[in-house]
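Action item from last week, closing it out:
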Amino acid sequence: MQGSATDSDITDKRLLRGARTRQLALARAVHIASLESLEGLSFGRIATDIGLSKAGLQTLFRTKGSLQLATIDHARAMFADFVVRPTAAEPRGLPRFRALIERWIAYAEQPLFDGGCFQSANLAQYDSRPGEVRDKLAAYQTEWVATLSEELSIAIAQGEIEELDPELAAFQIDAVLRSGNTALRLGDATVIAKIRRVIEAVLHSPGS
């Protein structure tokens, strides 16, 4: 019995060490992918950057494709924690929509990822390349635009903004945000004010 308990402890420690290594690798991978797209990922590079063995990382992720998919999931979780979840305390509709926009601006301006917006860095690389990577990127893009659209729909129903097509408006606003990300990467600090002006042009309150 004692031997079994010891074996179990060893297994638990190995699993914990593996989970920590995985998180460390993904924490580095998201920044590389934001700078050079997911194509820039390699086991050797990440292993060198974080001071671990290439063989150890390959044991955790098996293939480059699996590493890429895990990196997308990790980036999405970081995005949700930084942009989406902090807005949950805001009332639904226009207040939450505005909060989402401001959190996104902070996300791109800081930036959360070394290369700026993760989606912007990768969508253009994979939009014409069928496969799991493109599907996952597309799903998360659709999810984000739908989040904006839903808050706009609620704002319309509550009379906070004039009638508009929320899906079209969300699509346009997302395009402006990603264009703004590019301008920020090129050093144009004035783009933040431009983003806000464009969005305000969409959000005409009743009676304004």
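Closing note: DSSP finds nine helices and no strands in the chain.
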